[in-house]
Amino acid sequence: MTQEPRFSQAIDSPTVAAEAHWHGFTQMASYQPLAIERAEGCWLHTTDGRKLFDGVSSLWCNVHGHNHPVINEAIVDQLHRVAHVTSLGMSAATTDRLAERLVDISPGDLSHVFFSCDGSSAVEAALKMAFQYWQQCDDPQPQKNSFLALSQAYHGDTTGAVSLGGIKYFHQLFAPILFSPIRGPRPCTYRLPDTIDAEQACDFYAGEIETLLQEHHQSLAALVMEPLVQGAAGMITHPVGLLQKIRQLCDQYNVLLICDEVATGFGRTGKLFACEHESVTPDILCLGKGLTGGYLPMAATLARPHLYEAFLGELSELKQFFHGHTFGGNPLAAAAALASIDLIEQDGLVDAADAKATRLRSRIADQVADHANVGSIRGRGLMIGIELVADRDTKQPFDSADAIGHQVCQAAIDRGVWIRPLSDVVIVMPPLVASDQELDDLADVVAQSIEAVLGKPSVASKT
What we know:
Elements: E1 36-40, E2 43-46, E3 51-54, H1 57-60, H2 69-79, H3 93-105, E4 112-116, H4 119-136, E5 146-149, H5 159-164, H6 168-174, E6 182-183, H7 198-216, E7 220-225, E8 229-230, E9 236-237, H8 242-252, E10 256-260, E11 284-287, E12 299-303, H9 305-309, H10 331-346, H11 349-368, E13 374-380, E14 383-388, H12 404-414, E15 417-418, E16 421-422, E17 425-428, H13 436-454
Family: Belongs to the class-III pyridoxal-phosphate-dependent aminotransferase family. BioA subfamily.
Catalytic activity: (8S)-8-amino-7-oxononanoate + S-adenosyl-L-methionine = S-adenosyl-4-methylsulfanyl-2-oxobutanoate + (7R,8S)-7,8-diammoniononanoate
Subcellular location: Cytoplasm
């Protein structure tokens, strides 16, 4: 085991009343206030004097660390020009430049950019865009009004995005206000069917998807998926080659492909966009989170020419896209996004991501890969999930009431690292600028926190 890392330890502090702020996905009855006073680089400084390493990039969106002078300056410069103009029939020059830049760096012939404010909104726009496309394209097919989504998918929290999602509890709770998509498989490389091995996985899942397309293609507007990694589902990692096969199947069955890269975009997987790993251009691409480097709310929905052209016509034809957001394309956010993209290119962050990911994953694996309760260490690039299980051999999960993942993440906070679990999958996703030393210390804290909650027995010593 390595020596104790240099992260600061938690200190006792009085509980601060914070009932006015209602937090999402947080049980407020047991919430212990954690407020950030300031941040610098990869570090968060709390109001009670602690210093925490930002081990999940402020919910997967921070790219360059906090308080970056270049992005700060870009926002201030824009602030002195104009803070906001509508994107409904008007624009800001900065936002137009960002649209051009996104077209330049995105895969294939994605050539038109619709701006919104967050990832859920980007997906909502994509759904409505795909639906309206089939109503008014050159060969209208109004019956194509449903969607195919993967099992355990997560695409956001707005009503349409939740409908697409495959999170069981969400569907039980909100069922009366949701639509029902065609539900595809969960292309997981860890929990494979008993009769399928890793080499067969890609063809197996592609076959399941083709069966659904054969049956439903006449009514399907689009297949919607996160490419390579289903992030909020627990870092479910798809077999290599599956995305490319799905692209081919969508073309074969005349179904649009929507790729949700809200989480996987902007270098997280070792390419600027995850689709690039398999040379795939979706018909619609959804971006968010890292678009502004994690600074300001902004998302984008990019479309290929054949999508865009279906919305062109005379005013009287009412073909324009019937969707829009007050703050979509905000120029302050656009300035941050342009500065962030410049930094990504100038600092070579995407090229460096694979080496950093290998270092981080290897150091974690060296310490806990043989732990009796570590079932899987998986992900792509600097998107890492560590699944904790009650029985490694059977992959039996822990009782959810034990909240093992939460306990491990709390132990990490006590050791100076902020991470957040997805059930019993511990998520590690540091900013792309994290130094080698910071990555080493992050790995050490994660390993120590797992051992603090689950002990140190190895698979070999398990009886």
